[in-house]
What does this fold into?
Amino acid sequence: MKKYTYDADENKIVLICEKESASPYLYFVLQTDDPDSSEIEMFEKIAYDVAEVLSKSKVVLYEARYRQLKYAKKKWFGRGWKPGKFNSKGATARLKQELVNSGWKDGIFADYYDFYDEKVLWSKTRRDSKCLCILQEKLDMDLFRKSDMTYEDDGCVGIGIKVFPQTQIQYQNNTDETVDYYCKTDDFLLDFGAEILSTKARIALNEKYMTAEELIEKIKPVIEKHKKVLEVNL
It folds into this structure.
């Protein structure tokens, strides 16, 4: 990959391809042209519009993370770990309760818990995560904005969606299993995540369903709508 060098221009948004030879996906970075740019509000609008365009007429999964209060600890006796503790009264919990109270039926939602072991020097630790996952056949932008915890007490770093090639949800035995299936499957069209505060987004594109050229065709009008120029470096 040719290294991109900055000649800062606030009128440009840059799309850089970061292809990894061992991966079946194409990886892109979408960012403001000035790495020190403070145009957070502008980039936030672009990120939401890109998410809406890329998920149009497709099954989409997005999430709101619970803030972790305590990390997982190894049990004193026996094997295994004592799971971490997450905020049960924060913004994510309130969003979930809002869905329950309103009888929301425009998709399905469930909590999803995951973890992985990590080796640090000579010891092992465990990283836990818990999030409220929402699965829809048409992205509800108002709800999607509510799932953004960047400025909330369950703060994370931005927004993200995983888009699938289907137009209808492939239901499993129950809601939890359906959400679990979509969280774990690698058979997605693309994965889009935007770090709002650093004005940078990342896209993993499955070329089985969409080419780089088709992706650019979808993104370019969004950038131009915000009176910016898209510069592509493949």
